[in-house]
Please model this.
Amino acid sequence: MNPRIAIVEDEPELAALVADYARANDYIPELFHDGAAALAAFKASMPGLVVLDLMLPGLDGLSLCRELRAFSQVPVIMVTARVEEIDRLLGLDAGADDYLCKPFSPRELMARIRAILRRTRPDAPAPAFSLDEGARRIAVHGKPLELTPSEYGILAALVRRPGQVFSRNQLLDLARAGNPNLDANDRAIDSHVKNLRRKLDAALPGVEAIHSIYGLGYRFDP
Model:
């Protein structure tokens, strides 16, 4: 059965455009123009994924996402014209799985929908990554990676929450947890991520596991 995609958007033209692309990609779009109506519908029948605008009349997207997370883990892609980092972080803290800023490419939105549904479908293959918290070891296809304490702290956080975006400051805190003597600023995270990408590329050639999210940080999505 083709997945149902709920599009919660109060701009009719944009909602119709996203719906057209959804149909072209073999999804079944369901349109909602306010948060309260969407929430009531979700309680009756849950879609396969929600594309959720932040600025909605009545119940805004942030509140709707929090209400939704009280009873469902349905994937949510938050969409908004707000580009400030704090708004992005608030959206992710509310339980969104991904984030897109307007104006966006409908093709990119469809690609993100495919990636999330592929990752969350019941018959998804076992992940290549395994995490041994006790031994502080991460393996790829059973082969342990050679990681520094800081690299382990960063990669472990990403592996635990695939699809979640972490800011550089958040990753810096996690790196320091694994290496309390670390003397670095948030830009040092870029160096750690560069080294992690090099090691991951050697273990999984051609697979981009750590993605840069412009203006925010990094996301793990192999």
About this structure: The first strand starts at residue 4 and ends at 8. The chain has two domains: 4-120, 129-220. The chain has a mean pLDDT of 84.
